[in-house]
């Protein structure tokens, strides 16, 4: 996410809300880490879920925060792994690239 000029503090507030909501209501999340660039103009969120259904559940849980973030940032998504047709359809407006699993340690 590229954070809009002058919106960093508001962005941080929404990010904190999102983390609180996920901690409380989102059992399918396995990783939810937020990283800021050195100049604090961009943020990358590394998210990992048990399956595509958990991602769909997550999208429903953080709808309010996602709406706020879309007004504060240029939001983009990338999907990794076995992505269900339902999840692909749910995020098609973002036109995310999808990367299939190849290998890991």
Give a written overview of the molecule.
The protein is of the alpha+beta class and 105 residues long. The chain has one domain: Alpha-Beta Plaits, CATH 3.30.70.100. The chain contains four helices and six strands. It has helices at residues 8-25, 52-61, 63-72, 85-90, and strands at 2-3, 29-36, 43-49, 73-74, 79-80, 98-99. Strands 1-4 form a two-stranded antiparallel sheet. α4 links the parallel β5 and β6. α1 (8-25) packs antiparallel against α3 (63-72). The protein is globular. The mean pLDDT is 97.
Q: Give the biggest sheet.
A: 2 strands, antiparallel
The Cα radius of gyration reads 14 Å
H/E element sequence: EHEEHHEEHE
Percent of residues in β-strands: 15-25%
- CATH fold call: Alpha-Beta Plaits
- Average pLDDT: 97
* Domain module tally: 1
Give the beta-strand count: 6
Question: How does the SSE layout of this entry go?
Answer:
Elements: E1 2-3, H1 8-25, E2 29-36, E3 43-49, H2 52-61, H3 63-72, E4 73-74, E5 79-80, H4 85-90, E6 98-99
Parallel strand pairs: 5-6
Antiparallel strand pairs: 1-4, 2-3
């Amino acid at each position: 996410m590229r954070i809009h000029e002058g919106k960093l503090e508001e962005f941080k507030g929404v990010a904190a809300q999102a983390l609180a909501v996920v901690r409380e209501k989102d059992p399918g999340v396995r990783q939810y880490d937020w990283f800021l660039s050195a100049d604090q103009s961009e943020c990358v969120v590394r998210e990992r879920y048990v399956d595509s259904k958990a991602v769909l559940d997550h999208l429903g849980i953080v709808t309010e925060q996602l709406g706020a973030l879309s007004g504060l940032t240029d939001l983009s998504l990338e999907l990794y792994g076995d992505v269900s047709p339902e999840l692909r359809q749910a995020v098609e407006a973002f036109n995310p690239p999808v990367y299939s699993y190849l290998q890991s340690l």
